[in-house]
Amino acid sequence: MAARKFPETFRKLVITKFSTNYREAVETLTVPMIQPKPDELLVKNRYVGINATDINHSAGRYDPGKSPPLDAGLEGIGEVILTGEKCTNFSIGQAVGYLKNGTFAEYMTIPSSHAFPLPRVDPAYVSLLISGLTASIALEKVGEAKSKETVLITAAAGGTGQFAVQLAKQAGCHVIGTCSTDAKAEFLKSLGCDRPVNYKTENLDEVLKKEFPKGCDVVYESIGGEMFDTCMNRLATRGRLVTIGFITGYQSKLGFPPVKNATLVPKLLARSASLRGFLLFHFVEEFKPALQKLVSLYDSGNLKCNLDFGESSPSGYFKGLDSVVNAVDVGHATRFAREIQWQIPFLSARCVTIWKRDSEGGGVA
């Protein structure tokens, strides 16, 4: 077998100062090519996910005590191009997914124990990482959603909301989903949402009081502020509100929106209800089985993945490292998760073709 050849340098995005303005927080650097340690894989990133959480990362909220520079990006999928000597369960050309700082790069190393083997390099799998895993684990393990319960999902047409709708419906729940346009409401119906609520044209609190007088058994909440307060007011007896974030506060200086904390305790007490927080990385032990389930659902046609590649964004199609900042800007503005397709600038169409042939025929990367 011919020796594999790699470029001497590659580019990556680095957080060089903390800021909620992602464009000001990051810089593109050219760095020497890296080599994997014995228990690591060298991967070529193919697709990466853009989330609201990228703003929290650039603001320094995920690495207490650490200061810039920090590698940017939190999730991605790609192909293994070199394995450490101890990584006997992985092969060259294998598709893998990963949740690790530094995915906004052309190449990166990851511990083999953190790599999730995938059937192929499919951009839909990126959306199953942070967005899909959050919905699956939060609803099942924290929200404890059960058949015949009423589940309210805020930002239901967004990156993680779309999965929460489908998974709650598959669990036998009656699903309510909030959104901001009629087009998104129609999209939610296509996912099986029983009652889409366009909060721009309908008053969510009034809808819940009138149509669901017993309240919501589970709330999957990601907006914060006024939306959080409304959801708290409409919890059912023994209801569970699972907060996975608060998008409305991410770009503020403090990082969170105001809520009416003074009335929180009596509201919970009066209903024997509970408020539960969910942070994905506190459930690492659930990642592999949950991801296997999501991949199986998607591959069998029982889970839809609605991806946005930036076709309608002002900056155009999201392609390559240089489009990451644009995708973060657009994604935060619209509260939709964005996926970026890598087309590394120094690779030609021929190189991509060689990779496809190699992955099928066992040649070199």
Characterise this structure.
There is one protein chain. This protein is of the alpha/beta class. The radius of gyration is 21 Å and the shape is globular. The N and C termini lie close together (11 Å). 30% of the residues lie in helices and 24% in strands. Strands 3, 5, 6, 7, 8 and 15 form a six-stranded antiparallel beta sheet that branches. Strand 12, helix 7 and strand 13 form a beta-alpha-beta unit.
Kindly list the characteristics that best describe this protein.
365 residues; 24% strand; 6-stranded parallel sheet; alpha/beta; 6-stranded antiparallel sheet
Q: Which helices and strands appear, and what pairs or packs with what?
A:
Blueprint: E1 9-15, H1 22-25, E2 26-32, E3 40-50, H2 53-58, E4 70-71, E5 75-83, E6 95-99, E7 107-111, E8 115-117, H3 124-142, E9 150-153, H4 161-170, E10 174-179, H5 182-191, E11 195-198, H6 204-211, E12 216-221, H7 225-233, E13 235-243, H8 264-271, E14 274-277, H9 287-299, H10 324-334, E15 338-341, H11 349-361
Parallel strand pairs: 9-10, 9-12, 10-11, 12-13, 13-14
Antiparallel strand pairs: 1-2, 1-4, 3-5, 3-7, 3-15, 5-6, 6-8
Helix pairs in contact: 3-4, 3-9
